[in-house]
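input
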Amino acid sequence: MEGVSWADLDADEQRAIAILGAGLSIELCEPLALLTLRRLGLVVGSHLTAAAHKLRRGFVLDELRRRDCSLKVSMRLGVRKMSGAIGLIVEGYVSLKDQKSLDELRIQRRKLIADLNACTGIDCTTTIQQIEEDIVVIETGLARLEGATTR
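output
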C-alpha cells in the first residue's frame, strides 16, 4: 500500500472506497475494483483496511481545504448548507461525476423510507424526515451533474 495515492486509483476504485467508507453494501462496488483494492491491501473481506481509511480521510480533508470548507448547494429557496456525511458523500460523487452512485444512494434511501414506513409499534417520523432531507441533498447533486452535462 505504501506509495499509493488517491490519484493512483481509477474512478471505480475510488468509488468502492467511498462506498465502503460510507458503510454501504459491497454489492454496490465493481468486482474488478474490489479485486485491485484487495491486491493493494486496501480491502479485506468487505471492509476497508486502516490504510484505506487513511487514504480516504486524506482525500476528503484535501478536498475540504481546496473548497475552503464551503459545501453550499443552491436550492429552490436560496442556499442551504449541506450537513453531515451525506453532504460530503454527495460532493465526492459530484466531483467524480458519478451519477450512477448518486442514483444508487437515492434508491437505497427510498427503500429505507419504505421499510421504516412499514414498521409498526415505533415512531420513525424523525428518522424518515432526516432521510427525506438526505434525498433532497442527493437530488441536488444529481441536478448539478445534469446541469454540468447540458452546458
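quick obs: The two ends are 39 Å apart (CA to CA).
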